[in-house]
Each structure stands twice: as structure tokens, then as C-alpha cells.
Predict the 3D structure of the following.
Amino acid sequence: MGSTPHAGAGDMMIYLHGFNSAPASRKARMLHAYLDSRGLAARFTCPALPHRPAAAVTLIEEEIGRSGSRPTLVGSSLGGFYATYFAERHDLRAVLINPAVTPHIGLAAYLGAQTNLYTGEAYDLKRDDLDALAALATARVNPERYLLLLETGDEVLDWREAARRYEGARTVIRDGGDHTLQSFAEHLPRIAAFAGLDAGQ
């Protein structure tokens, strides 16, 4: 897939939240509010991703199909990993926010009982889930697909790993911050422009 992905006037933005997160997350709400203020709320969707990777993949695939266009994916942390898989699979653009590069390795420390931070749903993270994530890992990425947003103060993931993985992508790195990307608000216009969405459409 050597072509450069592009967004069109009718395209959607699909936000993919992270591990133990939900559509009620701060960044999802901020991005939706930003687009809403510009008359673009109908272009935004944020599915509640199941904890099981296989189920999450099925749901994301359905969301892409429902978009009826070439959506831009916006993925945070584990959502960035999913966004990469689908961007490469379907030749799409993706915004990656402190993305997980190897969640099948990093999440091994979280095996066992988990609780979603927003919904309160309890579940067990199993070895099979990590194996399912490993199966989604892409050998290579086309950096032209991506806008990469990182903060060096990320206490969960090493930002340098993502910087190496997506070398050549449009990249903004802010000193300090944390895994939630404290600077997210300043990137909202950049994200909308990257997706080809503006108030004039």
C-alpha cells in the first residue's frame, strides 16, 4: 500500500479509546465538543470498545463500514495500536496519541482482575487477550498515514518507542505531560485539519 491516504469532505472521525477507558474519557469528550462547536458533531463517533480484542476488532470494522467513507482514526494508547492495525489494513489516516506499540507485552503486568475506570465493569484480562493483540501487530507502517502526538512525561509508555516506530510521520512531541496527553487541547485544530475537517465543509 504505497499510496498516501487522504481524507474527503464527507469523511468521519472515529475515536478509539484506550485500555480500561470509554467514550466518556476526557479526550473523546473534548474532541467531540470541538467538532460540535464547528458544526461537525455528526462527523464524530466514539464506540465503546469491548475489553476482548477480538470483539473490539469486530466493532471497529463495523464502525469503519458504517462510515460510508474513508474515516480518519484517532487512537489513544491501546486505541492507537488498534488505529495502526486498521490504518494499514484499509489505507486510512490515523492520529495516534501516546500510542501503545507492543500492548501484548506491556499489558502482561495487568493480567487478572480489571475494572473499567469509567463504567465500573469488572472483567479478567487473560493470556488469550494478549495473544489476540500480538496477532494484530503490523510488521511495518507507512509513516505518511499518521499524525503522532507524544509527551515525554508519559508515565505508562516510553514515548521514544513510538517515536522510533512511526519515524517519518508528522510528529509533535511536548516536554513533560503524562499518558493522558495534557497538551491535548492545543492539538484539536491540528487533528481536525489532518482529518480534512473544518468549519467550511
In short: The two ends are 28 Å apart (CA to CA). DSSP finds seven helices and eight strands in the chain. The beta strands are 13-16, 44-45, 72-76, 94-97, 112-115, 122-125, 146-151, 170-174.
